[in-house]
Amino acid sequence: MVRNPKQTASETDGVSYRRARTWEIALSQMNNGSAMIFYVLVGLMSYLQNSGYGIAVAVAGLILTVTRVFDGLIDPLLALVIDRVTFSFGKLRFFMLLGWLIRSIAILMLFVWGAGSGLGAGYFIAVYVVYIIGSSMNDIAGQMSGPVLTNDPRQRPTVQVWATVYAYFVPAAFTILSTLVFLPRHGNQFTVGMLSETAITYVACSLVFQILACVGVSRIDKPENFAHLTDARNKVDVSLRDMWNLLTKNGSFLRYLISGASDKLAQVVKSQAVIGTLMWGILLGNMQLGSLLGLIAILPGIVFAIFGARYTGKYGSKAATVTWTWICVALAAVLTVFCLLVDMRSILTSLPLTIGFFLVYLLLNGASMVVTVASGTMRADVIDYELDRSGKYLPATVTATYNIVDQIISSLGAALALGAVALIGFSTVMPQPTDSPSTPILMMSLLLFFGLPILGWVCTLIAMRGYKLTRTEMIDVQKRVAERKESLQSQEPVGVTG
């Protein structure tokens, strides 16, 4: 019996999809890997501020918070520039490399050339602002690569899988490198010398990632892949009005934004060190457990991401988001009830309780990974829908508008976490792993660790009720876009005949 070959998405949907090779997707998302290397360096910034520039710890935290707000403001301006310009040699590589160069020079100025020279806070702030500009430029261009590489609904989720792989493994690998290699060579002290050596090595490694990312996007980094659906004879301007229209007229983007923002707030609060101290150190009695569990969860998380990509490709980003968000709500509710019914200090002393707790926790982590993959695909869908709706291709503007909210939420997360622990008595001192568990600590920990994520997922489910970019609708969107492109290409340019 002869088995019929499996139909491609293009054959099934009747759309000539733009597809990327697997190696192109893998290499293109190395820009995310490069960004993660700098993310690890920024994690060392507080040590640099204190030992390299003599900035007090409290002032250092204030500087990083204020500059985060600047980061949110600079994103839309850079996005408008990126969406407006066109280069014959491709703009993804130009802005990715220019952003990398700016952020790398700024890092070297901070960690190597300026540290320990008595330049003070003014120098640090000025150079750090330059770093933010380069970082934003590189990140926006890198995040644009996925929607440009492919519009095949079966392939698009794969982009998010590779981005997730780098987001997990690169920070873990480079954190281990600094902790096990550079730190012992400097007496286990975060000295200026240790930080300088780390920065030089990290910048060099990030360059390798960046070059490979540019190779990955080289085939599709052409002007025609950034074209608007307008008369080719008329110049199209991208302005702040387009960003406003995106928020007020693109209902699907607004619902995607609400979904992402609510989930992000819960994620940021949950990841705060003080919340980890309450949950792992005080209630469970093992502070190292949280870090260990994070490492253990990497492999099953990647497996779930791969499964999530297949599920999203088959059913669409909305269906995947709704289905797996309900699963997340159910698993988080089970863990909440579990922690209320048992003495949490007994979990690690009883094998059945330990297995039950960690099994459900890892399943929750995996389910949330599927939602993350679907969310990445949803952004690409929104970009194509905006092209169909307004005739303008605005991948940078969509990305930057989302990033503004992301930055605001991230800055609120720490304040919310600290305010919450202050309500249970930690107003003058921070919680320590050696503190004794109590009912207020238990209730606040469960509220922040499971309750807030449940609230975020409920917001997602409400937002998705009016989200119209289903699998079927996106097929129609791609058909309309393809028809309009063909119509524009068939127009004869106006010229003088002789």
TrEMBL record:
Transmembrane segments: 94-115, 121-141, 161-183, 199-218, 289-311, 323-342, 354-374, 408-429, 441-464
Organism: Agromyces salentinus
Coiled-coil stretches: none
UniProt entry keywords in alphabetical sequence: Membrane, Transmembrane, Transmembrane helix
InterPro entries in the cross-refs: MFS_trans_sf (IPR036259)
Superkingdom classification of source: Bacteria
The name this protein goes by in its record: MFS transporter
Alphabetized SUPFAM superfamilies for the sequence: MFS general substrate transporter
Pfam family, one: MFS_2
